[in-house]
């Protein structure tokens, strides 16, 4: 019976090895799939607005799954409509916690810019400002590593208010040289800190800089309060659809004209619509959800971008989905105004 005992032992060892390989060995990949289509009237409430439109505005999402083990990775490789991407291509050199922090910031910023652009388009007063620059990435070669943290809000460089990346770049180019140390005032977890960072060469012209990726931290003071329900959705790509839902609740007319309308695209304070990722997955999600009309960012002249990819995906799959590329919120509003 010794041979049987050895065989069982080897069989158990093989099963244990397979289990370890499949479920305990991590992989550096993410899986991307078509996500959900979310009705925005359940996520956004405009003070003294209305939610009686016959149709609906909807955001579209991409489902992102961390392939934390080999079994999940194999599922993604075999599953239809799943894209496998390296973690480094998704979040750069950010940790998982830093990546989530950046996505949450982008969503919060998108909410503020959507309020400002929607109220402006609707003829409502709104005041905007910048309280600082949000740190989204420390670039390779920067001397800020170990000094600054992702999520810091830089409020001044030396005595210069940090109101835009351009203004800080001009200040450093005009007054500093590579190797100089500048004093940064940063807001971190609601506390103010002062840090010293040496300047490094940036760009082809080797101009002095910090080697940081920064985005404006906006504030708005609006005439109408707009509340966003808590959500696990992150990133900036719902901005355009946020703005359209806000306008639909603000204005007396029904902007949906009874249609189920979805879309994607960033929005800035001036109502400009920007390119996003995952457009092909969002087209699939919109079709599966029975969407009638899909807004997407218009491609800059002479380039291939979201619009071409969206139209190509719908055509390839034989979808009866009207895709409308727009460059601004105003273009989307005008298109809706002519619907019957």
Q: What does this entry look like structurally?
A:
The chain is an alpha+beta fold and 340 residues long. The chain folds into 2 domains: 29-125 and 223-337, Ribosomal Protein S5, domain 2 (2-Layer Sandwich); 128-218, Pdz3 Domain (Roll), CATH 2.30.42.10. The protein is 34% helix and 31% strand. It has a 6-stranded mixed sheet with strand order 4-1-3-14-17-18, with helices on both faces. Strands 5, 6, 7, 8, 9 and 12 form a 6-stranded antiparallel sheet that branches. Strands 2-13 form a two-stranded antiparallel ribbon. β10 and β11 (207-209) form a beta hairpin. It starts with a helix and ends with a helix.
How would you concisely characterize the structure shown here?
The chain has 340 residues and is α+β, with helices and mostly antiparallel strands. It has helices at 2-24, 70-78, 87-91, 96-121, 165-175, 239-250, 279-288, 306-317, 329-337, and strands at 29-39, 44-46, 56-67, 83-86, 126-138, 153-157, 160-161, 181-188, 191-198, 200-202, 207-209, 212-222, 226-228, 260-263, 266-267, 273-274, 293-297, 322-326.
